[in-house]
Structure formats: structure tokens, C-alpha cells
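User: Structure please.
Assistant: Input sequence and predicted structure:
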Amino acid sequence: MGRKLLLSVITALFLSAAYALESAPESAPESARESASTEPAPATSNETPAQDSYSEFYGMKVRSVNFLGLKKTKNAYLQPKVKKIRGSQFSEKTLVELEKILQIEGLFDEISFNVFPVSESEVDIEVFLKEKLTFLPLPFAAYSSSGAFGGIMIFDTNAFGMKDTFLAGGFFSKETQSGLLAFSKSPKDNFVPGFRLSFSAARNTKKIQKFEPHDDDDFILKYKSTDISASVALAEKITEQTNASLGISFTSLKEKDIKGYEDIVDSIKIMSVFGDLNYSKSDWNGWFISSINASLSGKISFTNDSNYQYGQIYSARFSLQKPILPRLRFLSQASGTIGKNNHISLYSGRGAASSTIISDKFVSQRLAGASSGLEFAAAKLRFGTISVYANYEGVIAQDYDGKYNFNHGFNCGSKLYLSKLAVPALAMGLSYNVVQKKFFYSLAMGVSM
């Protein structure tokens, strides 16, 4: 009964928020908060001035690009982004390219331009910007086939006006209570490294299932733990699209047995060295962000338990979001993890295999998956964009008996992206595992699942 009530409350809140945003006057403050997902939201902007209105300036040199309307974002952050525009010849493509650069940043709700001559051979471009809300106290809640959870996050995706990221908050469910504090500073173009800092603490009740459980209450392991973790990493920008990082982390896990599962999991302290290499390239077509992302990562762990010395984890991830029509984009992603000699607390779940069709209670040292599908921008409203999506996915994983199993199925749903904010807001999804003949579902407010 409690879960049904939570589901009803979440749905009512979103319908109320959507109605209020659509019917409110332009001057009304935004009341909704979007999700802390890393998925880029469909961008919106004011209509770009007609290129023909500036045709008389074609062939003239762009002397400068000046940003107006900035309240938080620093001019020093934006100017390096448009350096290829400065000094170029003004043409019908100049403002289109400039708008793409700014939309990909994900910081602005409205963008418009004014172009005027400053000499017989030079022009200046003025860019009028209205910033999205990037400092958000974000309450969130979700209900899914795995249960219900909620919490609050305070995050800033444009800290100090330099697109640095700050995050603090808590997560609460029947099985987990946790807190997180993190800050990341992006590396600069002139070989000035960035860095990431994080600290977290949690109390968990872990319930582990096989890859294909007989039923929802079929657990092969249960244990309680108190975890404290901290990490620091340096990040370097290699090219405009490529960056790398190297860091260390420390985790202390204090285990407590659950009756019927005694003496299986031990308390442990883990020191890890990790690194990653990332590639990201993005574009914008007026409805959707298109992107190509790829990453490789590795971790070597040292523990105070001789059974888990020199644990290793190697992971790869690839994603593609490509518009094939203005309102329709192709989605594809693939990822996998290979681990060796790790404590069970370092095993990976279904997210490491880009999967929604297996239980989130299953973890493994070796698993991989891929999915492909389509997302359609069904409606662009004054307050944002509503999309629907569908894809088919497959996942293979090593189970606890050492055997590999393969499952496949579909995933579909809808998302709401709010134009005034920098991240998506509402996600509703339904998945079906063909092999297990089982449905998985989720409804999330303020968090993407």
C-alpha cells in the first residue's frame, strides 16, 4: 500500500508541476527541478536572427565576440570556446556555429545575436544570453520494481562561473542511507590540470541475487556494512575532445553478519589507484544534443586481506546519440567490465553493462551489454521538451557458478526535459526480459534511472 501511495504522489507532483509551468505567466519563477543525470538534455534557445539580415557583412573579419547578460558564467570561461570564431571571415555559417558552441555547453536557456561593423573590414558579434538555473537544491524520489527511495542533492553545475561541479546530498531507502560530498574542476586548454575530490559515507544492507533468480526473494548472500570512502584525482585535457585522469581512493568497509549468512563477507580496507581516458564530441540540431562518447578505465586495489591483494578492474564504455531527423535521434550504447580478485564490494552491477533488464541486486566481476533504439521529441512546450524512446538491449554476465549467461529484451519510456534548467527532470521506463519473462519498471522524479 505504501508503494502505491508513493507512486501516486510522485505522479501527481509531476502533473501539477507540468500544468503550472505551462499555464504560468512568463515572469513566474520556475518551480520544478530537473534530474542529476549525466545525459544531455535537448537544448532550446531563442530563434537565431535570419542570416540574410547580415549578408552585407559576409567576407568581413570577426574582430571580437562579446557576451551580454551573464550573471554567473565568467566571460573568461566562454572566450576560449569561441576563439575559432574570432579572426574568421563572417559568413552565413558563423552564427549557426556560434550557437552550436554555446548550446553544447548546456548553460543557456536563450541565445540571440547582433552583428555590427566596427570598420570597413571588421565586425563585432554581440551575444545576448539568458542563463539556466545551475545551482539547485534538488529533492528526488523514485519508485521501481526494486523498491522506493528518495533524498536531496544540492549541486552546482556551473560553480564559480567556470562550469566546475559541486555536489552534496543524501540518499535514503530501506536498505541504504548515504551521504556524498564532491567537487570537480575541469582542466584548462593551456595544460593546467583539473582535479576531482569526493567523500562519502553509507550504511548498507546488501542483498545479492544470481543472474537469473528464481524469484524476487531468492538471495545467495546478505550482509550489512558501514562504508567510508574518499578519493582525489588529477585530470588533464589532451585535446578539445579528449581528457585523462589519474587518482587514488581509500575505502573502509566494516561488515556485520546477517543471520543465515554468517562468516561469508569480511571487513576490509581498500586502497586503489585508478585512471581513465575519455573522448567526447557533441553537436546540436535545435531539438536534440547529438554526441559520441567513449571511455576506458582501470583500477588496481591493495587491501589488508591477503585473499584480495592486487584486485583489478578494467572497464570500457561507448555511447552514440545521433539525430536522423530533426525530432528523431538514434541511440546506442555499449559497456563492459572485467575484474579479477576483487572484494565483493567492488563488483559491478547492471549499470556497468548498460542494462535495465536484469535485477539490480545482481553484481559480478565480469559483465557486458549493449542497446540500440530511437528517441522522438514528441512535444516542445514553453517549459521544456517531452520525448518518448524505445530500444532493444542484450547483456552477458558471469554468474556465481562461473558460467556465463545471456539475456535480452526491450526498454521503452518517456522523459521530460525542462528548458530552464541544465539537466533532465522526469523519467518513466518499462523493461522486459525475454529470457526470464520478467518486467522491470521505474518512475523517477528528480533522478534518472
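Residues 1-50 have pLDDT under 50 and may be disordered.
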